[in-house]
Amino acid sequence: MTFNAYIDGLGLSAEDADHLRASFQTWDDLHAWLEENQHSAIQPKPERISVATPSLNISWKDNIWRRFRRSHEPSRSIRQPAGWEKIVEYRRKVTLALTLVTTVAILLLSDYSLRAQQMPEITIKIYLAIYGVMTWFLAANFFKLILGTWHTLRGPRNNPWHPSKTAREPRPETKVAIIFPVYHEDVARVAAGMAATWESIETGFSEYCHHFDTFLLSDSRKLEYNIAEQSAVHRLREQFPKGRFFFRRRPVNLNAKLGNVTDFCRRWGRKYEYMLVMDADSIMDGHTIVELLRMMEGNERLGILQTNPKPVLRRSLFGRMQQFAARLYGAVFSYSLQAMFMGNASYIGHNAMIRMQPFIKHCILPELPGKAPWGGKPLSHDIVESAMMARAGYEVWFLPELEGSYEEIPANLLGFLIRERRWMQGNMQHLRFLFLDGLRSVHRETFLNGSMGYLAAPLWAMFLIVSAYGMVHFLSKGALFIGSIRILEMPMAMLLVSSLVFLFMPRILAFAVHVSGDRAREFGGKDKLALSLLLETIFSFFFSPIMMIYVTRFVWLWLKRRGISWGTQQRDDEPLPWSECFRHFGWISVAGVACWALLVYAVHGISTGRALVIEALSNKWVSPDDILYWFFPILAGFTGSVLIARLTSLSVGLDWSLRLFCIPEEICVPQVIDCTMQWETKLRRTLPNVENPEAVIDYAVKDIGFYVKHRPETRVRPHIASRLLPMINSGMQLSGRNMLLALSERTCFDALHIRAVHGDALARKSNPQEVMS
């Protein structure tokens, strides 16, 4: 028989290949050569380091008690405070003072208005309590945005503490690991992002190539994903001979991404000084990566440098609107965060460079005691990790001015809500760290704000119920006189003005900044930018109530101790089937119809004579039917939730999309994104398709190229071979678990391949069990 195909798969020189063609006569010759000359190519030798969770007392009861007794531990900072910390604290106190004044003023005015409406005392107290909490957090974010934007207009060049001020060339021995943790992800898309990121470094910054190694860290449990992921790494190594692409699959995927990253730190933490943590859909430009490295090398205080990944590549209407909003408003908000937090910023879990040693020493989080969702593995561990890094005296910077960092966002409403539930549970777990000794005040606020971002949903729901009850109560039973109508109009006007100021000011401010800075053309021009902004704002009126009722349900399930795991996220643009829309949103539509009926019944329960008096006293400016108009966006969002979920999940044509909800990356496509799309097309044609598991397994045992490359990754395990070889030799079909073991055991893998490619006769003649014995 001929071994030419196997020799070609080894990638040898022509002279060496010719020599082997003459020397290989039997399978024993081939296997002997492979045993002697081949070693694992996709998994480097471990350089282990001890990894342990830091000693943390996360009992909030103990921490509160110690703080009241003033016996809490001093800050664990290992370095002297930086000069920017006083400025950050001053800005924080200014925003708190403005927030306090604004909230008190609005509550005093509301109290006067509600009492004039003759509302019951208990209703007034509930209304003011809910309204006060909501106003506080809305005002706090509003003033942070305003003050942060004012400071940001001066740019990072006027910030003497910005990491770019101390950037320097990396030392020759500096090593960075670019890690892509995955779990049952689209293999072709992940590999395309890896390829495009490396190609950007290799073509634009070849002198820095020796600093970077790229790892695909798999937590995938399904056999077909494991095969496709390994095949993808082998393909990348073939396409980029200068690149160093590696693969690691954990035997047990404990603690999801947190455990995956911890496993990497344990195995290779001694080899790398930094790790660039990516997500499955992350893409980064070589210039951005090199700048992060230069900043890290220039300042040993830097623990985490977080870029602002911009959402791209969405084609569904929902995804495009969210992508547009994040790109337009997020730019202003991100710059504000940098000005307000500086080196006390947060880490969002990906597209960030991390200093390995302090991360391993201070940021490996423990399993939280108690049952999920309050206990268990931390789901949103990234924000806590940044707080731990700052607690140890290192700086965490958010760098929105660095272009070239990209990600993908959920393409439909259902995917968005699934992600929000995971984030909600993670943010609720953050409350356990709220009173931990040594934390910065900014991070305590971050924990609290993150939790309140979800608790605001049930508060808003209660606020709407109380508001509707108050209006109906006044119109049906309150004393009517000319001034009373003005009193009714006052809370309506206050609600409208506060909504416009607190909720829509970021939109107005972002639009003004982009128009005044002549950046509107990056969004398709001023007219298209204005129209897209208007349509996205209208959509938000109907989208927000759906978010409110769903997050309220999530909070209720959380209170009932029903947890959720962090599984695979949908990252494609496939439209939601009608069946899924009715299944997940039908109950909201039914609730919307019921609310409509209840409100109409309450309004029409007001006598005709009383309604005529109200219209007469207000010169027909106010009527009981006006309540229906006030609540129309909310109830319309409820009632039309099924239709909204379905229509917004549909993909829109490229020509149409370039006119509306356009982002700068579509007007002028960055090279790294263009490369990602090209690589995805190529890899989709060549990699095995995980949607067909049988074909993937067939590829694993028959493809000669995969056999030659995968064999060094296997090991001789006699206890596995003794159990599985008789099954293989008898032609028995192996189950998923047994097949996974067989593909990892060398003699079993040899037997599977020989039988699949050359038939039973040759398999019996070259029984791998004889080799083993």
Automatic annotation (TrEMBL):
Chief subcellular location equals membrane
* InterPro entries named among the record's database cross-references: Glyco_trans_2-like, Glycosyltr_2/OpgH_subfam, Nucleotide-diphossugar_trans
Query: Which Pfam families does the record associate with it?
Result: Glyco_trans_2_3
Q: Which UniProt keywords apply?
A: Cell inner membrane, Cell membrane, Glycosyltransferase, Membrane, Transferase, Transmembrane, Transmembrane helix
**Pathway connected to this protein:** Glycan metabolism; osmoregulated periplasmic glucan (OPG) biosynthesis
Q: Where in the cell is it found?
A: Cell inner membrane
- UniProt-listed SUPFAM superfamilies: Nucleotide-diphospho-sugar transferases
Report how it sits in the membrane. Multi-pass membrane protein
Kindly provide the name given to this protein in its UniProt entry: Glucans biosynthesis glucosyltransferase H
Organism field: Pandoraea thiooxydans
